[in-house]
Design goal:
By secondary structure, the chain is α+β, with helices and mostly antiparallel strands. The protein contains 16 helices and 20 strands.
Amino acid sequence: MKKRLTAASLAALMAVTTLPISACAAASNETDGAPVPQLNTADHMQYMNGYSDGTFRPDIPIIRAEACQLIASLLTTKAANGDHLFTDVDVSAWYADAVRQMAGFGLVSGYADGTFLPDMAITRAEFVTILARFPHDDIGTERTFADVPASHWAHGAVQTALAQGWISGDPSGLFRPDDPITRAETVAILNRVLGRAGDAVTAATSEGIRIMPDVPDTHWAYLDMLEATTDHEYEITDGIENWTSFDREVSGLAEGWQNISGMLFHVNADGQFDHNVVIDNLELDRNGRYTTGSEELDRLLAPAVGNVLKDGLTQMERLRAVYLYAKGSFGYLGIGEVDTSKAGWEIEQAINMLKTGRGNCYSWASLFTYLARQVGYDARAVVGTGVSPKGSESVHAWTEITIDGTAYTFDPQIESVYAARYDEYYDLFMKPYGEAEWGYKKSDEPETPVEPQEPEADAALVSLMEKVYGDKPYGGMVMQAPLYSGMGADGMSRGLQWYLGTEDVAFEAGLASESAITSQAHSVVLLRLADGADVDAVKSKLAESVDPRKWICVGVADENVKIDSVGNLVCVIMDDENADYYLENFRSIAAAE
């Protein structure tokens, strides 16, 4: 039966029981009439507990009151003069009796003004000083710590702890006497004082071993924390502690997916953390954590998710929270198309998005896919065709999650970019296919494209196009395509529908230009109409049909769509940077020619 503290102020922080101590027990409890503290040597019971979410929080310092509660709970007898109190230790405080016992044995003392400062973090030097006051064999050592000279007030206690093997210092050879002692350091030192050690074989091979969500089995003090938090029976063989049985720890969390410190875990019906298993297509590793398969992405996701989730959220509310994070925390960066045939492209895109804070639809789809997975949804990034509200189609990527048998689309990228750039607001969270304002078409098996026969570009229009660009032609990074009536009807090339939003325009020759290497949203189209054509009617039609959002991921502001004519030449420009410049060039050059 585990003994746990019930005081509300100490809830789930430290549950302690009596424990053994090696090479320290006095022969009796009295020496010249003075009380001698002694620790129980009977059983390997749990003496420190975790928090209600199963975490241990190894790096949190312990305070003086907690240190007293912990060590006093290990004492086998009470001090004879246990009535001593300090001015700042209320008799009703959860730690009051522990402080009385510790002070009664002379293990702790207060300050000159009569205070104890129970809420102050206890330092490493102070903690080992308490332990050095227990009876122990005097063992000398020639080793010292450079930061604990002979003049240091705790030099004797630190040397005792060093000689006994309770401490070893940090990798640089320092002891850091004035640093607060952490929970991990506390159990590591106490286990050495108590002659206890975790069983590495049992920890690695036994089902039902305690999972601490914030302590992987690679943590330097993992076995010490496991030893301190698990009731177990043991045998000592050749000086090594071997566990013969242990109590399975129950987390107290509800069954299902749990997000702890930004990491995803699954609690089974027995209240234990699942591990080394795949649940809902999400892989849980040996420490019970969901893993993306990339250590780097795992490291980046945990703080991102942990910072946006609040306690008490339902799983759906957690999904909404990470969606809002994806929508509101990143900027658009045109990086072109991504080789989605390459294994792991989603991981690469998600990592880049988290590192740079910018990306395109592939980046957003990848990142939100892993954010959704991090809160327990079997999400996947989908590359297919996006359809604008005007019906333009282009390659696009989004996230798909099937919930209760229905496939839903999620598109934080469109929401983010169009709100920021064009004051256009869409709700693209969790929409069944066909019900969002934007369309999503999953790609079928690719077919070998049939290239349409393309006429030669009209030389006069090519010359005019070059002059329209003037000294701002995207560094030459544009692609040009001759247009003719009906081009694009095969659905395999960017023809009239793509550039003009309609195929119902009659013209004699046409030439279109778009940015190539750069993914700046940009088009320039030149049309030569037949003599006598109704130019104004064509311009009016194009003003309604052209789609400044045809690129799907990003578009051109409405005011930067320019349509004008000179004679029977019509120019359509869509560009956020140089639209007026190109239009002025067209007007002046076309009029001159």
